[in-house]
Amino acid sequence: MAGANNNSNVVQGGFPSNIFVTMPQENLECSICLDVKRDPVSLCQEGHTFCRGCITRARNSASFKCPTCRESIPAGALYTKNRTEKQIIEQLITKCEYATPQSSAAAAPSTASRKRTRAASSSNGTQPTEFCTWTGPLDKRDAHINECEYALVTCKFAGCRTSVRRKDQGEHEEQCPRRPVECTMCNKLVPSEEMEHHADRQCTQRFVACPNECGEQIRAAEMDAHLKEHCKLALVTCPYASVGCCWKKDRREKLREHLNDAVENHARLQVAALEQSLPSKDTKKVRWKLENARAKIENGPEESRRKSHRIEELIADSMQ
Q1: Helices (H), 91-230
Q2: Which residues pair with 219 in a beta bridge?
Q3: What is the percent of the chain where pLDDT is above 90?
């Protein structure tokens, strides 16, 4: 005896007759859904059987009666399994879900598959099929469908919603426009159909021309550093502008010439800026160091160039 009615265990109705190779006997049909009984059970004394799911859904009132003999069924009545009938039904010969054109209409055969079909037809004189020809007992049908090469499967690649037969899955995935392809420059995986756009517009390792038209081809990831530190045509300001250098903003290639010509002036500006920043209570030692720095500058441009790299050290030392 099975347990009492439990809505959490409600199952679907019977098996449709069109899945069977031959029409099942009428006594195997459920009188509620008119399909072949699934998990047959009975409630009445006469033993009339129905699909467990059908009879469970039908028991919706306290005055429920057997649909066949009209016997009143108590609310707490227990199901009785008909194991013999179930075994008979499970051994009925069925067809695969993908045995007809309608079941596979959503997945057109691939070009290569059609070519193989035509080749097979011409070589052995038989008419090949694009549909599953499997037949077997009902209790083996689900296991077959789970592995059937004609079953519809969805492409595994993100963004592709194509459904193909399982037997064509490998061929589709080799050509799928959404299959990931490794960029030869940055090694990033990119969908095949997006690779051209990635290589031309997105890849950080692609070479692009400097926007300043300096003639250099720079990797995209390094362009900011190139413009900031190396491009000879980039517009830059003098690094001594903060201490009063009036050199106007110009190309980097001209900055080098300016720095070479303005060593003496830059040194004077640095010393003057430091003098202005010193508080009135500074010691004589600090003032002497500043005067010493000025004296070195007064020795002439040539001496200024030779001593220019020491100016920052002198200034830093004077602050100690």
Answers
A1: 111-124, 138-147, 169-175, 195-197, 223-225
A2: 207
A3: 49
